[in-house]
Amino acid sequence: MQHSMELLVVTLAHVLPGKDTEARAHIRSIADTLRSAPGLISSRLYRSRSNDIVYLLLTTWDDEQSWLKAQERYSPKKLLLTATNLLASQPEQWLLSYLWGYSRPTAPAQLASIHIMTFDPQRIEQVQKQWLAALYQPELQMHLTFAFFARGINDTPTAHRLATVARTAGYREVFARQSSLLFGFFSWANEMERENFYAHDIYQRVKRIVEQEAPINVLSLEML
Fold first, then answer.
1. What is the pLDDT of residues 129-151, one digit of tens each?
2. How many CB atoms lie within 10 A of CB 63?
3. Could you tell me the CA-to-CA distances from 95 to 68, 126, 130, 178, 204 in Å, in that order?
4. pLDDT tens for each residue of 83-99
5. Which superkingdom (predicted)?
6. CA nearest to 206, candidates 122, 99, 115
7. Which tens digits make up the pLDDT trace of 2-55?
């Protein structure tokens, strides 16, 4: 389980056709810049396995205060926007807190996927419980190399104002009330583990239940 105070920032960049080489170099330079950010715990970079070129950057920060202090200089979204000629659309970025995490560090994670789900605030708690009940099952965990499940909010000027106002008390409570996003990250050492995870009855059951509430946006990735 991840430390409860850590803040996860997820950034998605959709790249224009024919710009992949330049975009990859730019995003790698952003990852290098982030390594010197105060309060940064870790960063991971992934690329989509589909025809649409999408890059995913995961950064984990000590806490909300570390992110608030660093974001003017080190926000991945802002750094991506220094090269808008490479992007098909505005980068997407979310601030999330961990709900569940699992790690098996002996196996390198080559393949991954993200599950992005947006719900009505009145329904998100029930859907969250459904996912967590499934992810706590050892029979499903055994097919994963590294994974986490998180909940959060779009990183917008409104979110920043909420965080600033509530930074002394209630930051996480404010975000919890405003949040409508659930985010799952799953990774595997090989294709067989990936197929076994998706085929498992527990995963199939929770997927069917959740899709009755809202669609699940699934993006397949490979680690860079």
1. 999 999 999 999 999 999 999 99
2. 16
3. 11, 21, 22, 12, 27
4. 999 999 999 999 998 99
5. Bacteria
6. 115
7. 445 789 999 999 999 999 999 999 999 999 999 999 999 999 999 999 889 999
Q: Length of the chain, please?
A: 224
The domain ranges of the chain are: 7-223
State the number of CA atoms in the 13 A half-sphere of 159 facing the CB. 21
CATH 3.90.770.10 given to domain 7-223: no
CA atoms within 13 A on the CB side of 5: 9
What type of residue sits at position 130? Q
Two tokens, residue 137: 């099952």
Q: What is the pLDDT of residues 96-133, one digit of tens each?
A: 989 999 776 566 788 999 999 999 878 899 999 999 99
Q: How far apart are CA 143 and CA 188, in angstroms?
A: 7
Q: Indicate the angle between helix axes 191-199 and 201-211, nearest 10 degrees.
A: 60
Tell me how crowded residue 178 is: count the other CB atoms within 10 A of its CB: 15
Token reading at 116? 């992005």
Cα–Cα distance, 92 to 16 (Å, whole number):
15
CA distance 179 to 37: 26
Q: List residues bridging with 113 in a β-sheet.
A: 186, 220
User: What is the C-alpha radius of gyration for the chain, rounded to an integer number of angstroms?
Assistant: 17
